[in-house]
Amino acid sequence: MLSSYPNASEDFRSLYQNQALSDIIIQTNSASFSAHKTMLCAGSSTLRKLLPSGKSPASLKMEDLEDETVSRLLLFLHTDSLADINWTTATKLYRAAIAYQIERLKIKCSCFFLENVKHSNAANVLKLAHEHRDIRLKSLVEDFVSLRYTKITVSQIWAEFYKSDPPKRIETRRSKRLKLENNS
Fold it and tell me: Which among 26, 53, 67, 68 would be 20 to 30 A from 99, CA to CA?
């Protein structure tokens, strides 16, 4: 019987989608999105600093993000859910999560990467982890790489990854060697 009624996430999704009681406009370069300050502040320490309690601005610019990324980011902050994401979307949301300090979104995107890491994209995930100093993601991808080192490192993508930043090759090989030594 209870399942026939909306849950809290569905209620918040409805509030967001219907723009009911929204109290802030998020502006990108080409669009505006209605949102709820409380939800933004609850999910992001950066937004909490930008929108202190009491009198705060009626609008906030997020010109560093694309419209679709802002839309998905706001939906996540209102519902804690990610639906129908792909690699590109996850990458954009991951970067937005880091920029706006939305830890749950960062972790969910990291989980998406780890669930979908393959020989062909391991270098891209490792590069992303390096760029954002994400030690957890970097370590897990290095584990993936170390188990498949020969097969992965002969790929063209891996060659480009190493070419773009040779110290990463040394660090990854060192990490692989240490893991092998620890397992012996």
Answer: 53
